[in-house]
């Protein structure tokens, strides 16, 4: 009988015992519970917990972030994302806010069900009728907005190379935004029109000059931007100007679409959701946009993500008026689709943000099918992949077949010494007669190293059969109060009938 079979009874009983859960602090306001240990890794010689213990993680450790790997259908959403979301809604006296990306379009139903059960409202930003709007440039100055637009460009294959044309395009973008900020259309739609539509460019420049003239202290950045458009860019050779415009076009192309303009380029503050409410009021916000249906939405997701990152980093700046005490969260399925790292690694991106986020009271919860998916999204740059993943200290692995991911997990846990005992015996004959045969026996002990985690263990993860409730196993690599807590854990998924 396997270890999981031996432990099944005690594990199921533990899940049924509400009092025990409370005694193990599973429902304390500032901690998160993540299943029940099985003792599997302890049996394999790893320094791991005994079986039958509830895993409880204080929020300060949750801020070291979570990432889950696993094949499609193996429980990343039902046994990892949804239970964590349910606990986060209840936590911190029900005051925690957060941002959720539903990039596959299949999360919102279950999340809404959980929120309804807990009587908590969810704000939804999206392209469907009745959903909220969000001006992507709100609260960003021209320099910040340009940095974020660079990340949009880097999503599409140019991970490690910022060439002359992109630099020129980003310069054009920033100068344009320095003009637009003095107009009534500081949006990405306005930026597209300023660059590509001559009549609109003249309109914007005229409006901006009139608004700027009323200032007591002149803005030299604005004056330089006007000079750039009227005396530098306008006088470039047509082929050179066309090449620069061709470089900026992929960044702004999504915002030619009327659907995107309506939702993400509205200048009326009353129509737009104010993301500061996530921190100040504890709002839970879902971005509802399926990338399979709207592939250009990657630009939108990237800009909203970076705006949220910027908001989190600004929360301890007293001049911003942001709540600095409330915990918040970020949840994203298939995170590899939206990873953005600059060619130099500088600026605000997934390489620089996550390394600092743990001190800013944010809990990151993301999923990916495999290590390989993360690696491929970063153009095969293994250093960048490992840098990003190192900032997700807590890892939960469901059943998968990707060898690269298994090797990555093996490298994190390492090996243990295993003793091998070999028995030997021999028989010898001396001369003739009785009692002339002697028999010798003995044994030898040898030690060799063996990985704690192997393919067999990863492939064995999955649904526990014959339990009185849905239960799944996963490998959890956690850090709790500075100590590693690694084991195969039993998780209770959340399912809703569609």
Automatic annotation (TrEMBL):
Its primary localisation, in coarse terms, equals: membrane
This protein's record includes keyword Transmembrane? yes
Domain TraD/TraG TraM recognition site: residue ranges? 330-456
Topology in membrane:
Multi-pass membrane protein
Q: Where in the cell is it found?
A: Cell membrane
Q: Which PANTHER family match?
A: CONJUGATIVE TRANSFER: DNA TRANSPORT
Protein name (Swiss-Prot/TrEMBL) = Type IV secretory system Conjugative DNA transfer
Q: Could you tell me which species this protein originates from?
A: Pelosinus propionicus DSM 13327
For this protein's source organism, the top of the classification is:
Bacteria, Bacillati, Bacillota, Negativicutes, Selenomonadales
């Amino acid at each position: 009988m396997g270890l999981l079979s031996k432990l099944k009874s005690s594990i199921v009983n533990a899940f049924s015992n509400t009092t025990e859960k409370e005694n193990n602090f599973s429902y304390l306001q500032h901690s998160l519970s993540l299943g029940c240990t099985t003792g599997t890794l302890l049996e394999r010689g790893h320094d791991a917990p005994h079986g039958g213990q509830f895993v409880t993680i204080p929020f300060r450790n949750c801020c070291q972030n979570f990432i889950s790997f696993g094949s499609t259908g193996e429980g990343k959403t039902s046994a990892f994302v949804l239970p964590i979301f349910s606990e986060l809604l209840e936590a911190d006296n029900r005051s925690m806010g957060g941002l959720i990306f539903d990039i596959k379009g299949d999360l919102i139903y279950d999340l809404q069900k959980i929120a309804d059960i807990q009587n908590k409202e969810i704000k939804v930003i999206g392209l469907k009728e009745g959903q909220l709007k969000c001006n992507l440039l709100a609260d960003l100055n021209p320099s910040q907005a340009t940095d974020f637009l660079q990340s949009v460009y880097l999503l599409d294959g140019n991970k490690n190379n910022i060439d002359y044309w992109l630099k020129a395009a980003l310069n054009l973008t920033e100068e344009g935004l320095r003009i637009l900020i003095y107009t009534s259309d500081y949006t990405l739609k306005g930026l597209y029109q300023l660059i590509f539509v001559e009549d609109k460019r003249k309109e914007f420049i005229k409006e901006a000059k009139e608004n700027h003239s009323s200032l007591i202290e002149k803005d030299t950045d604005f004056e330089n931007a006007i000079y750039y458009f009227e005396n530098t860019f306008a006088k470039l050779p047509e082929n050179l100007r066309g090449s620069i415009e061709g470089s900026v076009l992929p960044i702004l192309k999504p915002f030619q679409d009327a659907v995107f303009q309506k939702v993400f380029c509205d200048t009326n503050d009353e129509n737009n959701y104010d993301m500061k409410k996530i921190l100040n009021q504890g709002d839970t916000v879902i971005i509802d946009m399926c990338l399979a249906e709207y592939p250009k939405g990657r630009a939108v997701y990237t800009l909203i993500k970076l705006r949220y990152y910027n908001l989190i980093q600004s929360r301890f700046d007293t001049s911003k008026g942001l709540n600095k005490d409330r915990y918040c969260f970020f949840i994203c399925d298939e995170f590899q689709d939206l990873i953005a790292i600059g060619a130099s690694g500088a600026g605000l991106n997934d390489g620089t943000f996550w390394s600092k986020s743990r001190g800013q009271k944010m809990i990151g919860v993301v999923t990916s099918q495999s290590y390989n998916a993360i690696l491929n999204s970063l153009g095969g740059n293994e250093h960048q992949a490992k840098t990003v993943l190192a900032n997700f200290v807590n890892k939960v692995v469901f059943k998968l077949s990707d060898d690269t991911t298994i090797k990555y997990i093996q490298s994190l846990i390492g090996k243990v010494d295993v003793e091998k005992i070999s028995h030997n015996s021999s028989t010898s004959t001396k001369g003739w007669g009785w009692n002339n045969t002697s028999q010798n026996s003995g044994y030898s002990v040898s030690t060799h190293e063996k990985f704690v985690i192997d393919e067999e263990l990863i492939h064995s993860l999955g649904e526990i059969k014959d339990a009185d409730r849905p239960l799944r196993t996963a490998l959890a690599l956690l850090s709790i109060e500075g100590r590693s807590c690694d084991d195969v854990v039993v998780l209770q998924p959340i399912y809703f009938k569609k």
